[in-house]
Amino acid sequence: MSNEMRTENKMGIMPVRRLILTMSTPMMFSMLVQALYNIVDSIFVSRIDEAALTAVTLAFPMQNFMIAVTGGTGVGINALLSRSLGEKNYERADQAACTGIILNIIHYLIFLFIGIFLAGPFIRTQSSDPLIIGYGETYLRIVCILSIGVFFQITMERLLQSTGRTFYSMLSQVTGVLINLVMDPALIFGLGPFPALGVAGAAYATIFGQIAASCLGVWLNVNKNDDIRLSVAKILHPDRQAAAEIYAVGIPSILMMSIGSVMTYAMNRILIAFSSTATAVFGVYFKLQSFVFMPVFGLNNGVIPVLAYNFGAKSRERIRQTLVFSLELALGIMIGGAAVFELFPGALLSLFAASDDMRAIGIPALRIIALSFPVAGICIVLGSVFQAFSRSVFSLIVSIGRQLVALIPAAYLLAATGILSNVWWAFPIAEIASLLLSVIFFRKVYHEMVEPIK
Predict the structure, then answer these.
(1) Is the distance from CB of 127 to CB of 276 less than 8 angstroms?
(2) 20 to 30 A from 165, CA-CA: which of 27, 39, 114, 430?
(3) Is residue 266 part of a domain?
């Protein structure tokens, strides 16, 4: 298709509320499925024993760092590609897509090295229990060495999202999740012709799902995405300027997402000083909260290309409408999620074969942390503005303020009281700090970049 024949993208002409629902609903649904996978995956692992659940929790910071690298790079691809389409610069859009692919291949090679040489030492920095170390090292080594699937999966899904094809992105993600869900019990417990691999089975199930999703994502972009043209020659010869622009947005996003890895690592170390059960509760909370947060992140993924496109197209009113409607949706989701955590914490914990000790720790933990959910929803939507307008450094500052300046020091100080339940109050404290910073930066960006648009 020639550049002249490419038609106006729906992000510039469809009514905003319908556009946001069209763009975000598939992503929110796929994120819900992803959250369901996260929960079910841990439910299966918890049936091995509590040590296995704790081990997967200790492996999570490195696993999250891997996703942060490819996801953050994807944000950079998303912003450059969507903006280029809004400006009708189709050659630049193709360069953004192809350059983004080779960058994530390079990222995979880094985690291949980590999986081979650093998986064991990383787990041992968090626990001295031989059983937990054995489980954690096995799981982490597999998911790092065979992580090529997740790098291609997220990259391909970002390309689909950037061009408004969120339904296809949903198909890719749901395919991976469903395969994962089927393979989890089969490989963990040895169902049918499959061997019982325990924790290793959970890791392999994750890998199989990621590879299947990445293959489908490649096919969809080649055959169904008319807004970009992938070229092996362009992938092997990336555009330096495109790479610089991707990383200008992507590196702050990577660092912002990676801060979550630092936070979980630090929280693991703080909580394991109380007991391994406290760490397991933290892991369970992270799985459960994803069922609330993932739909809002799906909304965020749908909103970013809409904001970026309409900024490129210089449509201030559509930007304003996008923000107002997104805030309404995010608050509704978060308030609903908080209500579930407040009313049914025991039922949520029982999904993970929780012992009496885990329930005693977990019920107050879930209720206290859930108080912060509505505030977090506002911060996520405001952060989409920074990412869409290539001001991701503000998102980075907010994330640092929330997780490193507020959350971890607060948790450390509250842990010094010797009362475990006090530690959970660090989460509401951190979200309030995050909101203050988000509002300050949002007002600055909106005044400097949106208000001047005629």
Answers:
(1) yes
(2) 39
(3) yes
* Orientation angle between helical segments 130-145 and 50-86, nearest 10 degrees: 30
**Sequential DSSP letters for 395-425:** HHHHHHIIIIIIIHHHHHHHHTTT-HHHHTT
Contact 220, 73 (CB under 8 A): no
Please give the tally of structural domains in the chain.
1
For residue 42 the two structure tokens come to 């841990």
Amino acid in the structure at residue 188: I
Tokens 């787990």 correspond to what residue?
123
Task: Report the SS3 class of residue 220.
Answer: helix
> Residue 288: which domain range?
12-450
Tell whether 1 is covered by a domain: no
Write out the chain's pLDDT in tens, 454 residues. Answer: 444 444 555 665 677 788 888 877 877 877 777 777 777 778 899 999 999 999 999 999 999 899 999 999 998 998 889 888 878 888 888 999 999 999 999 999 999 999 999 999 999 999 989 999 999 999 999 999 999 999 999 999 999 988 878 789 888 988 998 899 899 999 999 999 999 999 999 999 999 999 999 999 999 999 999 889 898 888 888 889 999 999 988 887 788 788 889 999 999 999 999 999 999 999 999 889 988 998 888 888 788 888 888 877 777 788 888 888 999 999 999 999 999 999 999 999 999 989 999 999 999 999 999 999 999 999 999 988 888 887 878 888 898 999 999 999 999 999 999 999 999 999 999 999 999 999 999 999 888 888 887 7
Please state the separation of Cα 375 from the chain's center in Å: 18
Identify which of 185, 178, 179 has the alpha carbon closest to the alpha carbon of residue 202.
Answer: 185
Give the list of residues 6+ apart from residue 368 with CB closer than 8 angstroms, or none. 421, 424, 425, 427, 428
b/e map of 250-261 (b: 16 or more CB within 10 Å)? bbbbbbbbbbbb
d(CA 331, CA 346): 24
Dihedral of CA 374/375/378/379: which sign? negative
Instruction: Match 């978060």 to its residue by tokens.
Output: 334
- C-alpha–C-alpha distance, residues 359 and 280, integer Å: 11
What is the pTM for the complete model shown?
Answer: 0.83
Integer Cα distance of 426 and 35 in angstroms: 24
**3-state DSSP assignment of residue 452:** coil
Helix or strand (DSSP H, E) at 204: helix 199-224
Between vectors from CA 54 to CA 52 and to CA 56, what angle results, nearest 5°?
A: 70
Q: Which amino acid is at 333?
A: I
Does residue 5 belong to any structural domain of this protein? Answer: no
Alpha helices in 5-117, H assignment, sequence order: 16-46, 50-86, 90-117
